[in-house]
Amino acid sequence: MNKLSTYFSPIIALFIIFIIWEFLVNLFSIQLYILPAPTDIFLSLSDNLRELLLATLNTLKITLFAFLIATLIAIGLAIIFSLSKILEISLYPITVIFQVTPVVAIAPLIIIWVGLDNAEMAILILSVIVAFFPVLANTNLGFRSVDKNLKELFLINRASKWQTLMKLNLPYATPYILTGMKTSIGLALIGTVVAEFVAGTGSSAGLSWIIIESGNRLDIAKLFSALILLVLSGIFLFLLMSTIEYSILRRWHQSVKENES
Amino acid sequence: MLNFSNVHMKFDKDVLSDINLNIDSGEFVSILGPSGCGKSTLLRLASNLAKPTKGVVDYISPKDLSIGFVFQNPTLMPWRTVLENVTLPLELNKKKFSKEEALMWLARVGLKDKEKSYPNELSGGQMMRVSIARSLINGCNLLLLDEPFAALDEITRRKLEDDLLEIWEKENLTVLFVTHSVSEAIYLSQRVLVLSSGPGKIVYEKNISQYNSKEEFRGSKEFQAINSEIFEKLKSGVNNE
Fold first, then answer.
1. Residues of A in contact with B118 (CB under 8 A)
2. Domain of A109, in residue numbers
3. What is the interface pTM, i.e. ipTM, of the complex?
4. What pLDDT digit, counting tens, does each position of A123-140 carry?
């Protein structure tokens, strides 16, 4: 398999699925409000492009913002845990609560707390809650995996806690942190979309609102357009994180080196 | 330089027992022993990484003491270049340093022009050379090595042994070298100590007379005789278990 076919095979496969889909919809004369043909979806996409793109940008904006906040909180917590064993064993189990509670279950609470007219803030908080755990868990694992001999080397050289954190623990945990961030960025998008569903429109109109609205009006072609943009957003975010990961680990990490050879 | 008096070390069970050892400044001492006899623990005590359960480890002139430690694995930081790995101890001690100084050390261990490489671009022998340069850059006078050449092929190993001897002579280092290779210990050191296992005790001590040519020494009958003698002691140390 060469590189070109790895990239193009899925695109060609998708194209063939679209052709079969188009053919079947026409063959069985399926109604537009049940399953539109791909051409109908693309027509709807171009008709509503401005509205759809604005909604996508809105959703992406909150997702990225939530992702950044979640990452900072998670790394911060992991650092605190690495410095204090007692804080780690007391607080880490509590953070698991956020991980195991479905976001829709806590959404009403958050919305009430920040106020119904503050929907955007509620969505942001909910998305942060969904996204922060993978970074925390992976950073924590990274800190705990630091090579024993390297730690001894720092001890022999009488390194301060700050030096050990900045020059050893954080760089050592970087591949772990990036893995957590790759999971998190997808979760942040899911969190944002789910929270948008629960919070309603408020001041912002994200992709969820378009999905709800077109569903109610049986405008299934528009609903599909919004879904396509949602999928593309997810792929964009994943590629963004993969690119960042590649550029950071390119020179030294085995995972990247092996993929290249 | 370094003195162990009545040192005992106990983790779950006794690891070292009744260690009395004095290492003079500028001496090259090797420690031989079966696996798990506490050789590495002895080095950790010497480097202050661990405190003995009983007894005292002290240094003759602690003020000027600077310890270099070479681990069994090169223990390099993969995200740093060769140069950045070597300068780490200077950074940690907040010493001002010039790039030239670090480059000089790299040249000393035979790694000229490799300063921009990353560890994963080096061979096992080259990584060990970086590790040695890093242990020396801080003006080290007590060098502790924990089976540093165990994973290397014979040719690389002999080359590194000779380079280590050259550095030891030039820098006037005190060296404590842990190994499980009898011939390596005899070839390198002025004095060889044999530890028994469970708990580790010094069961034998041998001073090695110095030849003008080390190569000649390795081929000599005397070398063979010492080798057999120490090997027997090592074997009986294991049997004592």
1. 251-252
2. 33-260
3. 0.90
4. 999 999 999 999 999 999
